[in-house]
Design goal:
- The chain is an alpha/beta fold.
- 39% of the residues lie in helices and 12% in strands.
- It contains 5 helices and 5 strands; from the N terminus they run βαβαβααβαβ.
- It has a 5-stranded mixed beta sheet, with helices on both faces.
- Strand 2, helix 2 and strand 3 form a beta-alpha-beta unit.
- The radius of gyration is 16 Å and the shape is globular.
- The model has no long low-confidence stretch (mean pLDDT 93).
């Protein structure tokens, strides 16, 4: 029996900026998006980012379906440093060159005070390696964030981190992930 991992991005929070590790709640729309996304789907366990926009829904889903749940802070979104909470339009107007460099090469041009991509990659890889070790052939839903899903997809698909901005990850979208069992991608 093989392990199946599906990544689920949190629903809408009503915020229009890099939220990073700010601990936002879901809007009513966000809750509805997530409930619709999981309808008719089944998993054997749930692992979630500890941030409320993921964890609150993961708790509800796990309780309703009587599934084991584990919260893992390593699945949190990328830390955008001083850009967290600043509207994208404001960043584009005030720091457009820096924002453009970040989108093209986030490794070489992180936001001021932001997490390095080496740190981001390492913590996400460690978290996914643990999910696979614990799964033992089960289907696991991992509730996480847009940036985390983009980075993990780049890793498994062999893509440059510069491709992240072009990977579509709408709110409450599901993404199957073929995480290599027994291999570290960190």
């Amino acid at each position: 029996m093989s392990t199946t991992i599906e990544l689920l991005r949190h629903g809408d929070t009503g915020q229009r900026s890099y939220r990073g590790q700010l601990d936002d709640q879901l809007t009513a729309t966000g809750w509805a998006q997530l409930r619709a996304a999981v309808a008719g789907q089944s998993w054997d366990a749930v692992v979630s980012s500890s941030l409320r926009r993921c964890a609150d829904f993961a708790r509800e889903l796990a309780a309703a379906r009587e599934l084991p749940l584990r919260l893992d802070a390593r699945l949190a979104e990328y830390h955008f440093g001083s850009w967290q909470g600043v509207p994208i339009e404001t960043l584009a107007q005030e720091q457009g060159d820096a924002l453009g460099r970040f989108w093209v090469d986030p490794v070489a041009h992180p936001p001021p005070g932001g997490e390095t991509f080496g740190q981001f990659r390492a913590r996400l890889s460690d978290a996914l390696n643990d999910v696979v070790r614990e799964a033992k052939g089960r289907r696991v839903l991992v509730v996480t964030h847009g940036g985390a899903i983009r980075l993990l997809r780049c890793l498994v698909e062999g893509r440059s981190y510069g491709d992240m901005a072009g990977i579509d990850v709408p709110h409450a979208s599901l993404h199957p992930l073929a995480w290599p069992i027994g291999e570290a991608l960190a």
